[in-house]
Amino acid sequence: MDFKDLYNAALSVAVPKELSDCAQAASVGAAILTASGNVYTGVCIDTACSMGFCAEHAAAAAMITAGESRILKIVAVGYKGNIIPPCGRCREFLSQICFENSEARVLVNENTVVKLCELLPWDWRKI
Ligand SMILES: [Zn+2]
């Protein structure tokens, strides 16, 4: 599966919703391709008091729920179609749930794919 298909999977779930007066979801969607060839998607949940989480986090939770943890490719997409690199927390989170995820390919903009480890220089585990 190429990044175009993964991008489309992420975009397909990025459909903003109002959950309540203080919570919204799915302004960003993410899609993960695992080593087994499966795709897991997730959406962000944004709440007051900063209790929400990112789309990458939700996609990783779906992957873990299904019994997988090794990521080959990941992309996050805003509902308008813009590619969004993972935040610092998600970079660290994805790298800790499976150390091999450091080699996962991340689409960070239309023309750029980088390894997750390139987004995490000076890894604290290697010091
Ligand atoms: Zn994040």
Write a compact overview of the structure shown.
By secondary structure, this protein is of the alpha+beta class. The protein has helices at residues 3-13, 55-65, 88-97; strands at residues 17-20, 23-34, 39-47, 71-78, 105-109, 112-115. Bound molecules: zinc ion.
Beta strands, count: 6
Structural class by helix and strand composition: alpha+beta
* Low-confidence spans: none
Mean pLDDT: 97
Feature tags:
127 residues; alpha+beta; Cytidine Deaminase, domain 2; 3 helices; 6 strands; 25% helix; binds zinc ion
Polypeptide structure, described:
This protein is α+β, with helices and mostly antiparallel strands. It has one domain (3-126): 3-Layer(aba) Sandwich (Cytidine Deaminase, domain 2). Helices cover 25% and strands 33% of the residues. It contains three helices and six strands, in the order αβββαβαββ. The protein has helices spanning 3-13, 55-65, 88-97, and strands spanning 17-20, 23-34, 39-47, 71-78, 105-109, 112-115. Strands 1, 2, 3, 4, 5 and 6 form a six-stranded mixed beta sheet that branches. The longest helix has 11 residues, at 3-13. The model has no long low-confidence stretch (mean pLDDT 97). The protein binds zinc ion. Residues 54, 56, 86-87, 89-90 line the site of zinc ion.
